[in-house]
Amino acid sequence: xxxxxxxxxxxxxxxxxxxxxxxxxxxxxxxxxxxxxxxxxxxxxxxxxxxxxxxxxxxxxxxxxxxxxxxxxxxxxxxxxxxxxxxxxxxxxxxxxxxxxxxxxxxxxxxxxxxxxxxxxxxxxxxxxxxxxxxxxxxxxxxxxxxxxxxxxxxxxxxxxxxxxxxxxxxxxxxxxxxxxxxxxxxxxxxxxxxxxxxxxxxxxxxxxxxxxxxxxxxxxxxxxxxxxxxxxxxxxxxxxxxxxxxxxxxxxxxxxxxxxxxxxxxxxxxxxxxxxxxxxxxxxxxxxxxxxxxxxxxxxxxxxxxxxxxxxxxxxxxxxxxxxxxxxxxxxxxxxxxxxxxxxxxxxxxxxxxxxxxxxxxxxxxxxxxxxxxxxxxxxxxxxxxx
Amino acid sequence: xxxxxxxxxxxxxxxxxxxxxxxxxxxxxxxxxxxxxxxxxxxxxxxxxxxxxxxxxxxxxxxxxxxxxxxxxxxxxxxxxxxxxxxxxxxxxxxxxxxxxxxxxxxxxxxxxxxxxxxxxxxxxxxxxxxxxxxxxxxxxxxxxxxxxxxxxxxxxxxxxxxxxxxxxxxxxxxxxxxxxxxxxxxxxxxxxxxxxxxxxxxxxxxxxxxxxxxxxxxxxxxxxxxxxxxxxxxxxxxxxxxxxxxxxxxxxxxxxxxxxxxxxxxxxxxxxxxxxxxxx
Lengths: 388, 281
Fold this sequence. Notes:
The complex is a heterodimer. Chain A is α+β, with helices and mostly antiparallel strands. In chain A, a hairpin with a 2-residue loop joins strand 4 and strand 5. Helices cover 23% and strands 33% of the residues of chain A. Chain B is globular, with a radius of gyration of 23 Å. Chain B has a single domain (25-280), classed as MetI-like fold. By secondary structure, chain B is an all-alpha fold.
């Protein structure tokens, strides 16, 4: 596992870094800067995800690592070697393309053997058979790509890249063309293969769930740069910007005025209610800020009810919408200051369901809240169509 | 059973057309080739099933026959090299000039075949620029010429049939997903290797279609040989034409026509089978 702290220490070592290192990487197309002075360290052997909405520069970054796009400036270093200007066919990097890009005139066997044959590796047959076994396609070796289903083609694309044992394997939205069910099983499959072969995987995706399930480190990209980087749980639980808070899952962001800061707590006046946020979860220095709380961390109860959450209690809510989704119930609660907050309540059977129009009280534990910079757009990264 | 009868009804006009303008003439051609050659246009011919006409035709005219196949093959080879480069450039490098370049490829068709070939006569003329330059460069001797040589005929054929090569090649190349070429370079293929392993095999349907569309009409062509060559470059089409119109030897002309047709069909079948592109037929 790799943490942000480990990465930072690796970055400061200066000596030969055995992973992939991007420094000041920039790519402009005409007047448009797709990737803007990107610094990134991907530790060897990690499953790394570049997550972001379309147009955030994640695919361009990947193509620059593959050598299919020349950087405008900056450098790419792999296992201590500068490969910024190395031709794609000379890089120890392989890509699983978004549309697979299998060679339609070659059999599955020859598709997988392509890289080995170009490098004149010996024992092609044994290696290809081994790889076909890994992706469970041995019986399809003689077929053409067009005779395979989408999921099978995807596995061929993976095998064709993996067999070369690259320093870095790049996956460009590899599951994007599959339907939801197949995608879920391929996510587990790819993760299993990565654990088995132990190569560095860099996975580009716009699907936050996919990134969080598969990767051990996720870098959230926005507008050509990295917003935040870390383990999926760290990103989700403690987002440092409104973009990450909204793009990764959903967040309630409520305006508040800072009324006091102590060593480990920040007190905030939230429309007349005093709430507190742990200092380590405060990412705003100004007098105002966005108090963030995940919908599933908010408890809902009748006015005056003793909720299992000492600390922040906010009275005066009115339920405006109820959606029952089986495992949970999703409420929209209008607060006295007019904002509607989302609440996801687990259907544990302990709490009764509330109906639209009922008076409720909300509550959450202070350690779940986070405080974000008020200068940021509270809706940044939101309003995506999920799992499309 | 909605489509049953209507389908056949829709076939009818085409079948009638083929019957009238292909089956009947073809039958009459084969029949003519077996007539007694002693007859003539005026006195009429007698059907004697004389298969010897074929042997006579081959012994008398095997030179122009072989020459035609060779000129056709040479013109096709020239077209393939020039056409592939041109089609590749249009498909992959032309960008927004793509459509303009395609129009330019077809533009010669706006003038008549004869006029275009005649203008080549001017280009290759003894006192023309091309001969001048080649003489200065010592490629041609001081009294060397291009007109009335096989070079002129093959050049004319290649020029006239180049669009038939470029268009199918372009269609094939343009269809190739650029990401496949990226994938090949990602998988350690040098661009040149990538071309031969990915681009070339994927363009084969275009190569086969283009070579057929160039080879077949060039073998049968006689205008280029007539206008740019001398009697020494006479092609089989010219022989057939003069046998029909000048010598009035219908049986010989018909026999030669059938021989040419069979030869080409056999060669095309063998070629297509070898290239593994039967779906084109």
